Amino acid sequence: MSSHHPPQNHATFTHMRDGTSDDWAVIAREFAPYAQQLPDRVLDHLILLNGDCGGFPIDRLSHCLQTATLAHQDGRDEEYVVCALLHDIGDTLGSYNHADIAAAILKPFVSEENHWMVAHHGIFQGYYFFHHLGMDRDLRDSFQQQTALYQHTAEFCERYDAAAFDPQRETLPLAFFEPMLRRVLAVPKQSLYAKIVARQAVPES
Q1: Which pLDDT tens digit goes with each residue over 130-149?
Q2: CA–CA separation, 189 vs 112, rounded Å?
Q3: What residue numbers bound the domain in which 49 lies?
Q4: How large a percentage of the chain has pLDDT more than 90?
Q5: Sequence-distant (≥ 6) Cβ neighbours of residue 163 within 8 angstroms
Q6: Which pTM value belongs to this model?
Q7: Would you say residue 3 has pLDDT above 60?
Q8: pLDDT at residue number 193
Q9: How far is Cα 133 from Cα 85, in angstroms, rounded to an integer?
């Protein structure tokens, strides 16, 4: 009878200090397949915005799709378009900091410039309405010394985000953007766990 035991499916520790190499091999083995399903989870969460208008002229999903449509039609690259698509994905869980949620999701996969744009778009978007709510519409001006990032984000809000509330405007469906999203979220450019993904992507000899 063979004494070989099949690989365990779960780590055995109850406190991380007691974890063994075998335990962490199990966890590392499970990590890559789960991470590869990230685009599916992001799409599922994006769909939660469907039908939620929050008083706006169109629902939040339509706004995201329209923002991405405008960026795509303007010739922006896939990474930028995906940032436009996901910029408000945090509305469901981040009612008070939605931009932070989107930026956290995108950070491993996009340039520093595009990450900064998504992270700060809420402040920059405020230029168009904060004064109607008793707030300072010029909050974005505190970032003027960061000239390139300021202009990059102000342009995103002016050309795409603030302009994407038209019920009559052509809006491409989510299925159109799905391949782009899957490509952008396929491999992290920067991540604490990038080595794990790279190691598991190398075929065994």
Answers
A1: 999 999 999 999 999 999 99
A2: 11
A3: 38-184
A4: 81
A5: 70
A6: 0.90
A7: no
A8: 74
A9: 26
* Three-state SS at 107: coil
Domain count, the chain: 1
Q: Answer yes or no: are the C-beta atoms of 187 and 108 closer than 8 Å.
A: no
pLDDT in tens, 158-199: 999 999 999 999 999 999 999 999 999 998 988 887 776 666
* Exposure class string for 167-178: b at 16+ Cβ within 10 A, else e: eeeebbebeebe
- Helix 38-47 / helix 174-184 crossing angle, nearest 10 deg: 150
Is 204 part of any domain? no
Q: What is the pLDDT of residues 9-29, one digit of tens each?
A: 899 999 999 999 999 999 988
The CATH number assigned to the domain holding 136 equals 1.10.3210.10
Dihedral, CA atoms, 11, 14, 15, 18, nearest 10 degrees? -60
Tell me, yes or no, whether 30 lies in a domain. no
Cα distance between residue 86 and residue 73, in whole Å: 17
Task: Tell me if 112 is assigned to some domain.
Answer: yes
Q: What angle do CA 138, 143, 148 make, to 5 degrees?
A: 120
**pLDDT at residue 205 in the model:** 45
Q: How many CB atoms lie within 10 A of CB 150?
A: 18
- Domain-located, residue 193: no
* Angle at alpha carbon of residue 101, lines to 180 and 117, rounded to 5°: 65
Share of the chain above pLDDT 70, in %: 91
Contact 181, 85 (CB under 8 A): yes
